[in-house]
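Record type: ASSEMBLY
Status: queued
Input:
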Amino acid sequence: MNKNFTIFAFLILLLPTCLLAQGQINGKVSDTDGDGLPGATILLKGTNKGTVTDFDGNYSITADGNAMLIYSFIGFDTQEVAVNGRSIINITLEDDSKALDEVVVTAIGIKQQKKKLGYATQEVSTEVLAESSTLNIGNALSGQVAGLTVTNPTGMFQSPSFSLRGKNPLIVLDGVPVETDFFDISPENIESINVLKGGSASVLYGSRGKNGAILITRKNASKDGLTVTATTNNMVTAGFTVFPETQNQYGNGSNGQYEFWDGADGGISDGDMIWGPKFEPGVLVPQWNSPIRDKVNGQEIEWYGNVAGTVYDDKSRYQRVPTEWKRHDNLKDFIRTGVVTKNDISVAYQGEKVRLNFSANYAHQEGQVPNTSVNTGGFNFNSSFKISEKLELDATLGYNKVYSPNYPRYGYGPKNHMYTILIWMGDDVNGKDLRDHMYIPGLEGYRQANYNYAWYNNVYFAANELNQVHNRNVMDGKLKLKYQISPDLYIQGRFSARQKSLFEDMQSPKSYMNYGDSRNGDYKFWNEDQLNLDNDFLAVYTKEINKTVSISANAGASSFYRSYRQAYSSSDGLIVPNVYSLNNTQGPVQASNYSEDKEIRSIYGSMGLDLWQSIFFNVTARNDWSSTLPKLTNSYFYPSASVSAIVSEFFTLPKAIDFIKVYGSWSEVSSDLNPYSIYSTYNKGVTYGSIPSVNYSSSLVNPEILPQKSSTYEAGLSTSFANRRLSIEGTYFRILDENQIIDLSISEASGYRSRKVNGNEYTTNGFELMMNYAAIKRDKFSWNMGLNWTKFEKNITAIYGDDDTFGNLKVGDRADSYYATVWQKSAEGQVILDANTGLPTRDPFPTKIGHLDPSWRFGIQNQFNINKFRIAMDVDGAWGGLLRSLTIEKMWWGGKHPNSTQYRDEEYATGKPVYVPEGVVITDGQLIRDVDGSILSDTRTYSPNITAVSWQTWSQVYPYQAQVTEDESKLFANVYDRSYLKLRRLSVTYDLMNIMQSKKIKKLDLSIYGYNLLVLKKLPYLDPDFGNDNDLQDPSSRYVGMTLKAVF
Amino acid sequence: MQIKMKIILVIFLLSIVFFSCTDLEEMNINPNLPTESHPQLLLTTAEWDTFRAYGGTSPLYAQKMLVQTDGENSNQYYKWDRGSFDPYSVLRNVTKMMEEAERISAPSYVALGKFFRSYYFYNLTLSFGDIPYSAALKGETDQEYDPKYDTQEAVFKGILKELEEAETILTNQNTIIAGDIIYNGDILSWKKLINAFRLKVLMTLSAKSESGEIDISEFNAIYTTGPLMESEDESGQLIFLDQQNNRYPDFNSSGFSSGMYIDSTFIQRLQVRKDPRLFIYCTQTKSAKEAGKSISDFSAYEGGDPAAPYGEVNEKATKGNVSKVNDRYHTDPINEPYKIMGYSEQQLILAEAAVRGWISADAKVLYDQGVNASFKFYEMYSEEYSSYVDNEAAKQYLTEPINDFSKATNEAEKIELIVMQKYLQSFFQLQWTSFYDHHRTGFPSLRRPAGVAIPYRWIYPQSEYNFNSENVSAAISTQFGAGNDNIHEITWWLK
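Status: finished
Output:
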């Protein structure tokens, strides 16, 4: 056997040589992107003899040394090539029509001509994205793809989130599904991005691909010989697209008064709120940074922060000397210029039998928040070897690292700098003093100096003294072996592994305030390890039976295994400051760990039938076995069918119309559960002293749970006019989500809050439009415009157990209906106020005030070529939908809202309430409602309100404690329309080789660009592109930068 | 030969797909968490949850002990709406504890389970009226997802029965109860607490004793046969530890530093009684501190008017004239234990029973014991202030005419004295006890803005409206008339 193999291998190696002697010509037909073209025809000129390329564009043909070969492929320019005695001829065909015949990568890595697809896919032009780079490639996808929504958090190291037709898509990297936030993928190293939108498109990925997929292909060599590409990219923040606005006339305090003593209401209202005295010349107030005066000897001592535990904590002897009460522009002073530097180099080599690409990248970002940065970098190796005529090996290996010594903390709480500066710090606080005096004199390392000791941290202390490390290493490797059994049939096997390890910690200094947490300093860390193994096998058969009929079939099997391990340890207080180690803990160390394993095994196959090269049928089937479901139901099946027809082949169309393609598809996908969710378990509870405890989960499991099911129906039309001058594609889709695995809420009196059931039905109807228009096409000036537009609506169409309501939702409601807590209103819609206090009362029944998702979204990509300049301009936006603004609510409460200044002076001057809110008071009668909120009787009578309310009180109640829409009150609204229009990107690129001479450099592109440039919006103070406003957002920065790309 | 190669390749490729031979079902068994447990682990949870959850500051606002100055507090102004069914979540663990106890035949845990059930159902029914009781907590065992409601009367009778059963079960037990963080597993102590709680439940139903709907003779039976708590050491209380997650619930709580002040009526009540517990509960006002007044100077304390608009109180606080909660509540990691029922409360309940003639005992002795015990509690747990509340101080306190039980001439006055003493010891203790005492006896009075009525109950939770609408509608209709689920409706125990 062994001997046989050696001989066989030897023969294999000899094979090409032998074949050459017989006049065999081999090669590959590719498109301009270097992708092989499957099904391209190679004809021996003057004969009927010919062949077609395989799935990767490879071919072989026997011909004389002086013959002529004709290479043709629908949608590409035909080429005639003389053999000239060569044995290997690689050909690149120029496409003459992008719209119809481009080849795209579809599910499980199968390349398909776009015309054959019965579902919508959309490619993203990576060229423009590379020119005006973002640190995270995810952000760059904003507005690029119809149906793909990207939310763009404004803070550093906050990753974008994606929603594809309202669902969370799978990310596939080089054919392998991955879990990534994109920080560990270098944008420069990306060859193509293709978005598979519906279930039919991604059905072959099984449950993981049920929501569509974003396929990312990394670069490999695409040009003969050696190509070296070096790119450097540098950008800085240049001002802000959106910068929050606050009132800047009044400082900390309450009722117009303030005096600092201990920062916890031990002075005059020095514990909280920005309802204090007005900034006016001559006003002197004892402040946190005021010197201390010894009343006995008149000595003044410079001091910062409170005096607790010092000799000065004696009001009978010491006092704070009142100092000037003036305004500081703290947020602007705090935020520094952000800088991003990225450098990439790649070496690519393409020879007859090998394609290699090695790339290295390093990026560094300095955040806008002081003391924050992120470094990313890695090496990626991509190769393809032709071991023999029939055996091909692809190997990739990547190592990527993401490291941040400290990055900003977000969320609504004292760790977030915006929480402090924007909402809870009056402009009276001298930020520069906070920066220069982070500790109380003599208590360095032990107690921060601050203007407040009840709720907030000194922002500079919090930014500089608390550090959190994020250290991630991602290794991925893939080996693919492909064996061409016959020209019609090949098999391939793939083995891939992705290992992610992550270390994170949190180093909290002594006196750091995080509410319930220890004030004695703290050290916590987390270690995470995740291994994904994806292996698959695929056999592909294609056969052109005759000119009118060709068939294809493929069959495969795969396995997916994921293991995840996490360990966590934490100290309980620190003994010595600044030593972040468990050895330095005051109390017992706490630790926990978690491990999880999951496996899915699958088989799948598909059949394709092409008729007259214009009608394409395709059916696929896949079956998964998941480890997370009960044994009886752990096998589930996904079928899909699609048809695409170039109808223009059958009719004579007006000359202006190039072609018309119609397509339709249907698919059904299922999905499983998270691991370990079918058995109920006890969770670890508190350990009292050394006595442990457990508690029982509040959700009931269901050992008979079935996989959930979602069916997608899609129909589309694509056409183009006037020689591809204008191409349009429209897709209608309908998704039916049935049998959803839901945690159905139940009466808490049952002892449980929810139980897992299969139920509910959601119907999503949507429409996507993609358009490409070459508006101007002249020699020295051209303008090409791409447009995409999406509208969809998801409704709940049936509820478990034929109920009428699911939570607040009623049958037929949009799934994103916004049921809010609102103020009680009269039958006529006026706010009802309490006759005694003049204040409103919350309605105990949640009220639907609209829907949360935008009504539609769109994106426009413009490309201008002016002379040798290439200008790209991208715009995108959304229309409609409601957004509740936590920031605005809290600004009202705390007294930072720009409109909160209105009645302050008047009220402080008169010393009594002056503001009479508009509304009615109930004079008699009552309202009786059913449990569902429907009115049983309403006998209320009203009179207009005449009670004046303290302005501060009103501001702390009405726009804060319930939702107020713009319709209800323009002035006090805290729920706004989400609509916006954003100038996302503007870049100008010029190839410097036009003005330079060099034999060595082939290309030297210089791009100057701006990102996140302008926004038109309805929401004040904030950037709606951020997504929901529940966690406070950093000011939305404008980036400008420059990219220099050299190709050698 | 070539065929062989093909076969080798195919086998190789297929094998990489199915390299793993793990059993899928086995893989889905959670390696991190157990599916069974000893009841002791659940007992610790139930005790921790129960004794640590003192109800937050809500009862303190409603019982006129705190005022809020940075927003309108719905408890302070009696503007609350819906209540919560959260206690059923604690009872889930109690239910599991009882199940696990039956699995391994450990009846003590069943007995304690019955106590916790009674404790929570007692609080739930007082909060709402009719509640799910007999059909409750059967979500897992009986697939009962929307339990029907029982009348308040049935709930009370059930509670009394379960408590009696608990007592009986424990009588026959003699092993130490593992996992018990309250009494270290001492069965006798538990019997005492259970009996004391039975007295509390019966006393709550004082309005029903005359109508005969409840047989009040049980009270005397418990009193005479016992056992009952004999000293403050035997109180049902949890001692906090200075260790991560074991600290006093309000340790490091920022809420104490701004916007939260002491109610003027509470301070006045302590002042007129020359009650030194004032120094333990409150801080001196800022002005008093600056004037150099001593801690034991009653005039160093002042509160905010709970009936005034909160902005006005805020202004008074701004001037430095309102006391705050004593720092120890948020700066001492251990502070004081939390009592769900103490010896002091037990003695005061007995005193009231003596006044009502339910038992034959000297009400004054019981009253004095109750007061002494409360002083003793603070002497033990607020070390810094212990000298203000020692034996001598208690004696002195009881001689003040306003506190002297023997000076009370009629039943109403006696009951007022007793209930007031319960009230005065319920600062961050005993949850809503005084609020219900107010409804039951009229004492203590609770100050509020003119025209505002004190609610009797809470509206049923939105989750019941959403997920158990049929049963909750029925309960509303039978108690208050359709749709009339409002906070001013009176429920059975007060009718």
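Annotation: Chain B has a mean pLDDT of 92.
Annotation: The two ends of chain B are 98 Å apart (CA to CA).
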